[in-house]
Amino acid sequence: MTHDRTGRTHAQRWRCRRGAALLMAGGFLLAAAGCGGGQSHSGGAGTGKFTIGLVTKTNTNPYFVTMRKAAEAAAKKNHAELIALAGRFDGDNEGQVAAMEGLISRGVKGILITPSNGTGLLSAIAEARRQGILVIALDSTTQPPSATDATYATDNVKAGRLQGAYLKAALAGRPPKAFILDGTSDSTVSQQRHEGFLRGFGITNHSPAIRGQANTNGERNPGQTATENLLERTSDINTVYTINEPVAGGASAAIAARGLAQKVTIGSIDGGCDGVRDVRSGKYAATVMQFPVTMATRGVDSVVEYARSGKRPHGIWDTGTVLITDKPVDGLASQNTDWGLKHCWG
Known about the structure:
The chain is α/β, with parallel strands linked by helices. It is 42% helix and 17% strand. It has eleven helices and twelve strands. The strands form two sheets. The protein has a six-stranded parallel beta sheet, with helices on both faces. Strand 8, helix 8 (245-257) and strand 9 form a beta-alpha-beta unit. Helix 3 (93-106) runs parallel beside helix 4 and helix 5 packs parallel to helix 6. It is elongated and about 60 Å long.
């Protein structure tokens, strides 16, 4: 087997070049997950510290910013190094693959991944695990879930179901007329939340109750534009389902601009502090809180334990969901915004 002067094989150099090309295409800084020579497989570059990789869907969504900060704090507490990378947008599977390949080349001890697509990362995950790297999914599962060592995530079907059940109850018997604002077509989380909403709301994808539907990339501006476009077709609506709070903010702005704020009930999922404040101010009626701090902290702690003892975590761990609203409905447990502001994102 032929090596270069840094001790890398031709296969390793190929992986580095391929990772570099993909990282460039994905808008990443290669230095963060470099393929420089002389690094030990422990991921510590000879320092004795081990390295943990975190790959989120984006680095701009407040939810993933919070997750990254929690992972950084947990890593620092355990004297580990954290390398945080992300896709360019929610659904950027190629960018996430590139990030994983860069982390594998770096020789990290573990990778925490929030998969945009349940199947799109399977090859990269399998390669990481083949090289002895612990892989943990955060936020959502892969398909199958057994592709990773463990998962710490929201039950996204349940989260969607809670939103749907709340919005259904808020109608108080009125016929439903709903807009559905999803994330991206190939997003596992988007699909799961959508499915849960339909169950909780008591309709199917073919129901006449659905007056309009659009993908939003899980972002505020596309969410507002999508809502404005749907309102051009019909303003006869009373309910809006949103994939997350950035989209809910955009939908709220579009609906308020049309003078429909008092006629339309908006629900969402996330439970960030800003989202809870939006519920309090009436921009939307309810949100379902998730706990990304718990996900990130448990993920880092699991990699630390693996690095020190070789023990691997197993299975899917539900990190919880709580309905937040100041307008509770019968039959659904909820907390008010006072509670929400004390616990936002856990």
